Amino acid sequence: MYTNQIYQKSLKDLNTFSIDITAKKIIFVQTIKSLIDIYKKCNSSHVPYIILGEGSNVLFLENYKGIVIINRIKGIRIKEKNNAWLLHILSGEKWSDLVKYTLKMGFFGLENLALIPGCIGSAAIQNIGAYGLEFKNICQYVDLISLKDEKIIRITKNLCKFSYRDSIFKHKYQEGYAVIAVGIKILKKWNPIFLKPLFKKINIIKISPYEIYRSICQIRKEKLPNLNKYGNAGSFFKNPIISQKDAKRIFSFNTNIPYYLQVDGSIKISAAWLIEKYNFKNVHIGDAAIYKKQKLILINRKKANPKEILKLAQIIQKSILKKFKIYLEPEIDFINSSGKIKLLKKI
Ligand code: FAD
Ligand code: EPU
Question: Which residues contact 79 (CB under 8 A, 6 or more apart)?
Answer without folding.
Answer: 85, 86, 87, 88
